[in-house]
Amino acid sequence: MRKGLYLFHSQGPWIHGLIAMFLIAACLLLPEWRLPSKIYRTMVVLDITQSMNTKDYHEIGFPEDRLSYAKKALREWLHALPCGSEVGLGVFTTQTVHFLFEPIEICHHFTVIDDSLEHIDWRMAWSADSHVEMGLYHAIRELQKMAPGVGLAFLTDGQETPPQTTIPQPDFGGQRFKGVILGFGGLSPVTVPRYDRENRLIGIWENADIEKPPLSTTVYSEKVEIRILPTEGPYLSWLDESHLKALSATTGLLYHRIDRPSDVMNSLMAEDQAEWRTAEKDLRPYLGGIALVELFVLLGIPGLRDGMSWIRGPLKKGSKKAVSWFFS
Fold first, then answer.
1. Cut 0.85: pTM above it
2. Peptide bond before residue 193 is cis, with ω within 30 degrees of 0
């Protein structure tokens, strides 16, 4: 064994070079290994109603409007997700959601997910109304049909426009669901910008522009809320936190207010949103890292060379202590 170690040392440059070449070649084969991993499976639904165009964020390097702020924070989250995680995207407006695609694996489909998120826009809305409660219930129902077990992330300011006169009746029998409601916007009322279809600012929304609340239908319960709607002045928007907390209590989804970009990451990557599954693990970072160390040794990087000398000296003398250390 001592002679073998001495031979390894004497032929070190060749051996280190061959090992590095082998590892680099292995990286080109895109090696993967199925390992138990902590992953996240999430359907992200973004509120694209016009109140999400309100500008009440002031984070350096981030957009001011709620929708763009949410998209940029989500893109940072996408980059942090481990391989094996699955993400789907959807949008909400009026009373319903539309899923753009079901959850797909993040590493193999990152470009598709990231590009789709980047192009989500308020002009995709098929109606100007915003009935968040009905939209959330619709998202839960549709997700349970399409992908049971996948967590829901519903991003909204909670603004009901026009304010509802009656309360929707949930139809899932008190069942609790996995996921989060992320509340965007400030708590202070601010005006809502108004854009044309070319996304040019043409003013602000006025209360006179808001339609009257809808009449009760079969999708509503009989419980009536008395709401007085102003008829003049600017229409104001804020994070309706009490409303979203009530929806959290009804559905079992956790509620988090988003004050800074890291809040999105922390909420969506919390331990209670994760699950352990066997997933493909990309081995290239590990093999590439070892190959880099081998190249450093081969090229005689001072720090590594000096560190190796601690081993070389005893090996030349045939130290059993060094041999036992080497295999420890």
1. no
2. no
